[in-house]
Specification:
- The structure holds two protein chains of two kinds.
- By secondary structure, chain A is α/β, with parallel strands linked by helices.
- Chain A has eight helices and eleven strands.
- Chain A is elongated.
- The relative contact order of chain A is 0.10.
- Chain B has one domain.
- A five-stranded antiparallel beta sheet of chain B has the order 3-2-1-5-4, with helices on both faces.
- The interface between A and B is large, with 43 and 40 residues.
């Protein structure tokens, strides 16, 4: 890559997440000047004109916060050896949100449709071609057929990725969950009864030594609670949960009723 | 595991290409022009656009994108042409409080700080990846 503008274009084309930090105010001394830049991608500095090591570290740290909040913001960084207070604008380029639907059964059909209405990029997968096909999912961006845990391993997953585990059997959900539980996905939801989920998490703790706080990240049983009955309603409840995780809020009636 | 969704993906990439302000920036830089990229970096009160909104200004005062229109934008454009001339970035404070009586759509009652940054080809290449 030879130019910053080319890198920024490439980031957008690949649907990657990145932060462009630009110095907008700096002291006279310290060798840092307004307009100096630093591009952060995948937790690494991949470009820019800033060379001051301390400032780069401070930017790297703050970039992570900005990306998590998906909000551009200017931040004052205190760096005595770089001339004192340096104001840096963090321009957040979030990756477009993506939902991976694991399991192409009867809930997946309305789930994919609704997710497209909400403007997510949608990948659906199953190991049965009879279920994972274009006829059932005309709107899906990608349809994958094959071993689901292996497929998950091969997919890029980042902080704008939402994963829904709704395979035909709990053992497949569990195999897939093992593959992604330590990853950076913003949301992992898994279907199943409380009893089965409890047993699954117990195995995770005992056999895999997975820490409680890692397990706590998983939304299981999946979805918001509004006594869903049909597959369409379950799909809506899953997506409502995903939107809540993405945007925040309490997911209660605004009227307070 | 290649899915049959490849064509959808291409269409999406095409869409993003036309969306990207940096595509347009690069095109101008390739022609040897110096541009000013104006970005809202902070706001107070009610402003027409949010933090992060961008506008690109060329040396001839052409504008791509918007930071909200109205008098504020005209001020920024004037400053941007100066930034292109001097190749020195600056922060401009746009006060939308003072002309409350005007008919401008930019009368929102807020204040915004706009960072105006000059871009030219050699500078762009300095920021290349490692």
């Amino acid at each position: 890559m030879s130019r910053l503008s080319e890198e920024l274009i490439q980031i957008q084309e690949q649907g990657a997440a990145a932060v462009l930090a630009t110095v907008i105010n700096a002291g006279e001394k310290g060798g840092v000047e307004p307009g100096d830049k630093c591009l952060v991608r995948d937790g690494r500095i991949t470009g820019g004109t800033i060379r001051h090591e301390g400032l780069l570290q401070a930017i790297l740290q703050e970039a992570e916060n900005r990306l998590r909040e998906e909000k551009s913001k200017s931040v004052a960084l205190e760096l005595p050896d770089a001339g004192g207070k340096i104001e840096v604008f963090f321009e957040v380029m979030p990756a477009p949100p993506k939902i991976i639907v694991v399991g192409a059964g009867h809930i997946a059909v309305p789930l994919v449709k609704l997710a497209k209405v909400l403007d997510f990029r949608v990948i659906v997968m199953d190991d049965r071609m009879l279920f994972a096909n274009r006829e059932r999912f005309p709107q899906a961006d990608e349809i994958l057929v094959g071993d689901m845990a292996a497929a998950l391993k091969g997919l890029p997953i980042n902080s704008s990725t939402y994963i829904v585990l709704i395979t035909r059997g709990h053992k497949y959900d569990e195999l897939c969950l093992r593959e992604i539980i330590h990853g950076p996905a913003k949301y992992i939801g898994m279907i199943g009864s409380r009893r089965r989920i409890k047993a699954c998490f117990q195995r995770f703790k005992e056999e895999e030594n997975i820490a409680e706080e890692v397990i706590q990240r998983v939304y299981a049983p999946i979805g918001l609670d509004f006594n869903t009955e049909t597959p369409e309603e379950i799909a809506l409840s899953i997506l409502a949960e995903i939107v809540k995780v993405r945007r925040g809020g309490k997911a209660q009636s605004l009227s307070g009723k | 595991m290649a899915g049959p969704g490849a064509c959808h993906e291409d269409a999406e990439i095409e869409r993003r290409k036309t969306d990207s302000i940096y595509h347009q920036v690069k095109e101008f830089l390739d022609k040897g022009e110096t541009l000013a990229v104006a970005t809202i970096v902070s706001t107070r009160g009610s402003t027409p656009r949010e933090v992060g909104a961008k506008m690109v200004v060329t040396a001839w005062g052409e504008i791509l994108g918007t930071i909200g229109g109205g008098c504020g934008e005209a001020d920024v454009k004037r400053e941007a042409i100066e930034v292109i001339r001097t190749r020195k970035p600056r922060v401009v404070r746009v006060d939308l409080l003072d002309d409350i009586s005007s008919d401008s759509p930019a009368v929102c009652g807020g204040i915004m700080n706009v960072f105006i940054d000059p871009w030219w080809k050699e500078r762009d290449a300095e920021g290349a990846g490692k």
